[in-house]
Specification:
globular, alpha+beta, binds zinc ion, five-stranded antiparallel beta sheet, five-stranded mixed beta sheet
């Protein structure tokens, strides 16, 4: 992919109104030349969050989040650097220029732009056809029967593909697109006789859009009896990659990051129906199985993922697969229990608009879901049958750290098996399978620990962003990396990553070995996060000082715990000096009362 030119990135940074962008997430008030408000990154009651519209920087004196308009969107909306630049370019009307590696690269980009244009035009055609044509009456009736109103359907761009063989084909050719482009966009295909015809016919069309709302392809639902298969997706194309997209992502993203919770359902119509009922943090996987890439996308949106899949066997298996993809990502997985044979759409129709929200509020832990999946319908008629049940439960429970939740599940099982608990516990003991433990523990910490785990995860995310800023910034970045110490970083792997990057600064990903997959993954992620554009000196300094302040905070706590009051005093002084320096950089006095937030 060609890189956005650094010139364009400067233009976007200059054009973007950082106050306006941040206002979308928290209310800001002017104080002199600055703006302050409640921090959008942590919970607080007195404002410690400050924005400098001149320097185009933000900083929180409570949690040390800080950076520029690009890092803000990366952090708050879970965007990649490139996506943040593109989104702001759209919003502030900046035409992006690209550093073309060669002419072929430029040509490929132009070709892709053409495909996006063709797909957007076609989506518009389908959408008009749904509402205007007599042929689509049955489709309209079906959608109405699912409880979907016109407004919601229009927001998602739902349309209808005519039954004729060549409506899209001929109109696209008339607009100047080529047969090759139609095929490349996945809209036309060749028959056995060699003739070209429309790929989608007599189907309800759900546009699959990326995070920016660009149409990448379509999911298409049959409308006629006997029309097979029931669902067809765009096949793999230049712009649509299977297993990458989530339906509804463009509309759900901001809501999901704000709520720190995202709901995953199975059907396109479920997403639209829930959206209509006021639950907007909802997306659908395409097909039942969520891929690793989709799970990674979910992890960027929110920490809590609610799975609302059908109660049938395939839905249950799909959820178990999500768990393995989620392992090690620090996600909290929960399961929304749906009545048999009902999807969220049915539920809303039959039990009213609040019915789903109520069930989502009662979502159960993944552990409970797993235990119930084993127990439901299990044969408990003989001792041998009970042994088989125990064998299936053992791996489920073995990886879970002791907690009230785990005890409760063990009690339930003891009850069902009619075994005394003290006999059951040793039967369930077994070393945890490798790779399962972390996920199990992250997921089943009691609520208080989960909150601090969330804070830790936020801290670590910020550390990764700072490392990426260093990678972006050449010699200056290298100096900041050298100034960092292990104490600034909260995990072992990040410490190793810093050491590695410092040692291999010019080409950090070269020479990474499979022997240390954890290091390889973290370093690659940091390098991918790094932009092609050097970060400004003040942004680096504010970032560094934020980490420094956190380090001092932790050291102060340690000193206090060791009753080394002299040291505690020195550290406290040092910390206020750092706070002052940051305040000076931000051109403002720190807000009283924000300490220790
Ligand atoms: Zn904060």
């Amino acid at each position: 992919m060609s890189r956005i030119s650094s010139d364009s990135i400067d233009k976007v940074r200059a054009a973007a109104d950082i106050v306006e962008v941040i206002q979308g997430h928290t209310e800001l008030r002017r104080r002199g030349g600055r703006f302050t408000g409640l921090c959008p990154f942590h919970d607080e009651r007195t404002p410690s969050f400050s924005v400098d519209p001149g320097a185009k920087l933000y900083y929180c004196f409570g949690c040390q989040a800080g950076g520029d308009v690009f890092t803000f969107l990366q952090e708050k909306e879970g965007l990649e650097f490139r996506e943040a630049v593109e989104q702001l370019a759209d919003r502030y009307g900046v035409d992006l220029g690209f550093d073309e590696d060669d002419a072929a690269d430029a040509e490929r980009r132009r070709a892709r732009e053409r495909l996006y244009e063709l797909l957007a035009k076609t989506a518009g055609f389908y959408a008009r056809y749904l509402w205007d044509s007599g042929e689509a009456a049955k489709a309209r009736a079906y959608l109405e029967g699912r409880g979907l109103g016109r407004e919601g359907l229009e927001q998602f761009g739902v349309g209808y593909a005519p039954s004729a063989w060549d409506r899209v084909l001929t109109s696209a050719l008339r607009s100047g697109f080529t047969e090759a482009e139609l095929q490349a966009a996945g809209l036309a295909q060749r028959g056995r006789q060699g003739g070209l015809y429309d790929r989608f016919r007599a189907r309800i069309m759900f546009p699959l859009r990326d995070a920016r709302g660009r149409v990448l392809g379509f999911g298409a639902r049959a409308t006629r009896a006997g029309q097979q298969p029931k669902y067809v997706n765009t096949s793999e194309t230049e712009v649509y990659r299977k297993g990458r997209s989530l339906f509804g992502l463009d509309l759900a993203r901001a809501h999901a990051t704000r709520a720190d919770e995202v709901i995953v359902v199975e059907g396109y119509t479920d997403v639209i129906a829930l959206h209509q009922a006021g639950m907007r943090n909802v997306v659908a996987a395409m097909g039942t199985a969520l891929t690793d890439e989709q799970v990674a996308e979910l992890a960027r949106l929110a920490r809590v993922v609610l799975l609302a899949f059908d109660a049938d066997r395939s839905g249950q298996e799909a959820m178990l697969r999500v768990q393995s993809a989620a392992a090690g990502r620090g996600l909290v997985l929960k399961v929304v229990r749906l009545p048999d044979d009902k999807d969220p759409c049915d539920l809303l129709l039959e039990e009213g608009p609040d019915s789903f929200a109520t069930r989502a509020g009662e979502a159960i832990s993944f552990l409970q879901f797993q235990v119930e999946s084993v127990m439901d319908g299990a044969d408990l008629s003989s001792a041998a049958a009970k042994d088989r049940v125990l064998a299936r439960l053992r791996p489920v429970l073995a990886g879970v750290a002791p907690s009230a939740e785990r005890d409760e599940q063990v009690r339930q099982v003891a009850d069902r098996l009619a075994l005394p608990e003290h006999l059951l516990v040793p039967l369930l003991e077994q070393p945890a399978p490798a790779g399962r433990t972390a996920a199990g523990m992250a997921e089943r910490r009691p609520a208080r620990a989960a909150v601090s785990a969330g804070a830790a995860a936020r801290g670590e995310r910020w550390e990764r962003i700072f490392l990426a800023m260093c990678v972006s910034s050449g010699e200056r970045g290298r100096e900041y990396l050298a100034r960092l110490s292990d104490e600034h970083l909260s995990s072992e792997v990040l410490r190793r990553a810093r050491a590695w990057i410092l040692e291999h600064f010019d080409s950090p990903t070269a020479g990474l070995s499979d022997a240390d997959p954890q290091l390889a993954q973290v370093v690659s992620e940091i390098v991918v996060r790094a932009s092609s554009e050097p970060v400004s000196q003040p942004a680096l300094e504010v970032g560094f000082l934020g980490l420094e302040r956190r380090r001092l905070e932790a050291a102060t706590k340690l000193a206090a715990a060791a009753e080394d009051f002299q040291r505690q005093h020195e550290l406290t002084l040092e910390r206020s000096r750092v706070t002052e320096t940051i305040a000076k950089l931000m051109g403002e006095e720190p807000t009283v009362g924000s300490e220790g937030a």
